[in-house]
Amino acid sequence: MPRLNTLVSAGLVLVALAPIVACSSVDSTAKDQLSSLTFAEEPWLRLHSDEGRFEVELRSLPASPPVRGDNRIELRVLDADTGSGIEGLAIDMVPFMPAMGHGSGVDPSSTEVGDGGYELYPVRLSMPGRWELRTTLGDADPDTLTPTFEVP
Questions:
Q1: Residue 10 belongs to domain spanning
Q2: Apex CA 119: angle with CA 17 and CA 52, to 5°?
Q3: In a shared domain, residues 69 and 17
Q4: Distance CA 82, CA 84 (A)
């Protein structure tokens, strides 16, 4: 009987891990597909941070504005006074759907790409409707912005 319990436990662990493994391979495939695309020259949105210190340009893949599913977002953060790119910022983004009162459940990772550019992936938007990208720029003296858009 102990051997049967061990086999049943092992089977349950495999069944529990199967969705995680399946999702991981889907995510890496989606990321590979998005990595082969390039961002448009023109941003789909320009806005100033809440305190006015930064001007931020947003670009997204696979479409602009972002669509349902996994998106790759590029933020270009510029000094609002000089227009030069700001490097070395910590960027934190939380995709949030106000009508439903929840986020996407996945916080995107930020990678600095130079000249004030930062790529965030995966920006997961799970359903159609109005979404916000609640974004914090910087650590010690942070500023914020909240791009808002409709996902069809």
A1: 1-36
A2: 130
A3: no
A4: 5
